[in-house]
Amino acid sequence: VRDFSGNNNHGNESGSVSFNQAGKFNTSINFDGNNDHITFGNSSLFNTGGAITVEAWARPAGTINWNSFPTIIDKDPFEQFSLYFNPLQNIVFDLNYTNGNVNLIGTTVVSVNTWYHVVATYDGSTVSLYLNGVLEDSDSVSGSLAFGAKDFLVGAGWDGGSKSFNFRGRIDEV
Description:
This protein is mainly beta. The chain has no helices and 16 strands. The protein has a seven-stranded antiparallel sheet with strand order 1-4-13-6-7-8-9, with no helix packed on it. The protein has a seven-stranded antiparallel sheet with strand order 2-3-16-5-10-11-12, with no helix packed on it.
């Protein structure tokens, strides 16, 4: 998977990842929810210690298992952060920082086969979670973003040392 940002953070796919699927913009990547994901390594760009923005377009598929906490983007919430859906079909952002962690939970119940723009930001003092441009949750925190040793994942999340929490559906524009 090619990184077009110019930072050369190219990814490697695992499992049954399908490319060139109809996306929100041009094409997207389809995940079947069965042990497939894209790994982008552990670049220093993912370990800034400072402000971050994590965003993607996500379209959960019709047979998604909401009880498996389907994950869009993950850098291990116990080390850094995770952006995923909970069993109630809300978007969630977990962030680990030097003075603790925060868990933001959206209020909107998402539907299958619908595109959603999910964004989480941290500016060093406030963590915010947005769905389709609307603020869903925020919290004030103090401290730097924690550094993590695990790889940056799209379409799955870390469960200890294993990759799990597989997403079923399409992801675009990470």
